[in-house]
Known about the structure:
By secondary structure, the chain is mostly helical. It contains six helices and no strands. The protein folds into two domains: 1-31; 39-138. It is extended, with a radius of gyration of 21 Å.
Amino acid sequence: MSKGTRKGLIAAGTVLVLALTSGYFWQQHRASDPAVAFEELPAETQSQFKALMADGDREWSLYQKEHNIVALWDAIDQYADAYKLHPRNRDAIHALERSANAALDATQNDVEQRRTMAMALTQKSEYLSKYPPVVAAER
């Protein structure tokens, strides 16, 4: 086999591996999308979702300004309820992750308190019960 043929085979193999890998990750990305597009939800559900997210955002802002843990928990409750209305919604996921990370960060100096926080987060939301940082902190 000539040197040029070998390089061509290596290049073709590399392209094939990249194409297969890209396809796999695209499918994983699509599988994580909501089963029903937001626009296809009933108008009332869309309205409820938006209201819950807005309430959560207000509580999140209060938490950021005052580091009020009650406001953080209220935000998590609102985001969790929004997620229940539209599972796998990316905005709800982002808000839940941001809030859970803040809750865990608040307890990072105390392992037992962090574990207790993680257990409470798993009770708040089905999504958070599988969120890797919460799962890891619960151990």
